[in-house]
Amino acid sequence: MLEHGAAPPAGASDTRPPSPGGPGGLGTRLMRRKPVERLVAEGGQGQGGELRRSMGVWQLTMISIGATLGTGIFVVLGNAVPAAGPAVVISFVIAGITALFSALSYAELAGTIPVSGSSYSYAYATLGELVAWVCGWCLILEYGVSVAAVAVGWGQYLNELLAGTFGFTLPDALSQPPGDGGYFNLPALLVVLLAMAFLLGGAKESARANTIMVLVKIVALLLFCGVAFQGIKSGNYADFMPMGMTGVSAAGATLFFSYIGFDAASTAGEEAKNPQRDLPRAIMLSLVIVTALYCLVAAIAVGAMPWQKFKGSEAALAGIMKAVTGQSWWAVLLAFGAVIAIASVVLTVLYGQTRILFAMARDGLVPKSFAKVHAKSGVPRVNTVIVSLFCGVLAAAVPLGQLADATSIGTLFAFALVNVAVIVLRRTRPEMKRTFRTPLSPLFPAIGFLLCLWMMYSLEAVTWVVFGVWMVVGLVVYFGYGLRRSRLATSEK
Q1: ω before 442 within 30° of 0 (cis)?
Q2: Residues 6+ apart with CB under 8 A from 439
Q3: Engineered SS bond to 242: which of 85, 344, 360, 440, CB 3.0-4.6 Å?
Q4: Cβ 468 vs Cβ 141: under 8 Å
Q5: Residue 135 half-sphere exposure, CB side, CA atoms within 13 Å?
Q6: Residue 244's Cα: distance from chain center in Å?
């Protein structure tokens, strides 16, 4: 439910004990918190310039949809339908409800603490510096590896589009990374560099480009629905739940990762015109739109083709359109939609990565160059170039394999912390005005927290190993750099 008002202005009294920024025991320094008022007051401020507030609720919603609606719906049905049958529609609803609990917590904190750091900043204000660092480190893993993994998929769909349109494809040597039959994945690097060019043009310009791409991929999915609807046969729904609720639940756990990205709008907290009002609306609206599209596409897909025939196909939607119409060029249209969809995901996720690093650099936990803002464009240029080149080279030259699965565990860990942060901030700062309140708190945040833990527990052991190694590296970086250089530690103004 919505409530008028905003976060208290900088300088308002903080009823909690002051966060120690100077000397103290190690435990005290690790638990130091950054007051909400200070986080909000520093919003937009970078080295040499400021981020510009240029985005309204429409652009923010498109950012979240752009980061969420991508490869998932184009490839996920081939894996989920065999597990759940036609009841995959229910699986999508279950996954959406699971995401909803965390989305409610994100909406409350995004409206209360409208800054670029997303869950990193929320943890800094409620759970302390060490937890915030761990959360930020998880986000770096989530966003960085996700950009690279999605960029690799873009090259595959680009080849499908080229084959259907011009009759040729790029050779494996230039479209696959070493170890996967090639030497260098050129398309993956190109799509990241293209996203970088848009981001360097300014937040407003990149948001406009993303909006166009989001609309194109929504139209592509609606086109699929319109064409495939003609091939629906009621008999395909007859055995609606062949694997029982066990299959529905298993598919729901898999499909949850199709919802990752709805939190992207929260990284635009310092570039939104009215963040307290618009961020909660954008987060909730994007989740509703994505869930509705997922369920609609899934319902029509299983009605147009018997669920037994999906058999893990990664091109299920294109195959259905070809079967219904008898024309292969429909697959070309779907490939075009997928190319646009994945490019939009690369753009929005790369945007989120740069803004999170911007917030961490401003706090002194990573080098200050990541917080340097170009005075004319209002963009953290050095940050954007470094992150883009790193992600582009990672996508082009490194076979990601199981490393890509680590994005899921990093995301779930961040989601879990956001749910805890809502509960903590409600107890420590009950007087704060909130533009959105999570219903039935602390029950709903607690449910969101437990669901995240359950999802993490269901991941494979190798994913936990990768996550553990990443955390060890992160702690070494924090204790060797961030602990001493933190702005709270140096009392830097």
Answers
A1: yes
A2: 1, 104
A3: 85
A4: no
A5: 27
A6: 31
CA-CA-CA-CA torsion sign (484, 487, 489, 491): positive
Go through 305-319 and write b for each residue having 16 or more CB atoms within 10 A of its CB, e for each that does not.
bbbeebeebbbbbbb
Residue 37: other Cβ atoms inside 10 A: 19
pLDDT digits (tens, 9 = 90+) for 169-200: 888 787 777 766 778 888 889 999 999 999 99
CA distances from 264 to 280, 314, 350, 351, 493 (A): 12, 26, 10, 9, 29
Enclosing H/E stretch for 67 = helix 57-68
Averaging pLDDT over each range in 211-225, 248-262, 390-404, which range is the top one?
A: 211-225
Rama region for 489: left / alpha / beta (φ>0; ψ in -120 to 50; rest): alpha
Q: Is the pLDDT of residue 310 over 80?
A: no
- Is 389 a domain residue? yes
- Hey, CA dihedral for 165, 69, 149, 352, is it positive or negative? positive
pLDDT at 459 over 80: no
Q: Is the peptide bond before 8 cis (omega within 30 degrees of 0)?
A: no
276-290 burial, b for 16+ CB within 10 Å, e for fewer? Answer: bbbbbbbbbbbbebb
Q: Which residue range(s) make up the domain with 436?
A: 58-150+186-490
Residue keyed to tokens 């803002």: 373
Domain with residue 146: its CATH number is 1.20.1740.10
Helices 329-362 and 186-200 pack at an angle, to 10 degrees, of: 60
Please identify which residue in the block is written with the tokens 């919802």.
259
Q: Does residue 36 lie within any of the structural domains? A: no
* Rg from Cα positions in the chain: 22
Domain count, the chain: 1
197 Cβ contact list (under 8 Å, min separation 6): none
Cα 430 from chain centre: 29
pLDDT band for position 90 (50/70/90)? very high
DSSP state of 20: P
Q: Model pTM greater than 0.90?
A: no
Burial of 14 (0-12, 13-18, 19+ CB in 10 A): middle
Residue 203 token pair: 């937040």
CA-closest candidate to residue 40, choices 289, 333, 279, 207: 279
Matching residue, tokens 């103290």: 24
What's the first-to-final CA gap in the chain, in angstroms?
Answer: 36
The answer to the question of residue 202 being in a domain is yes
Across-strand partners of 372?
47
Tokens of 120: 């990193």
Q: Does any domain span residue 464?
A: yes
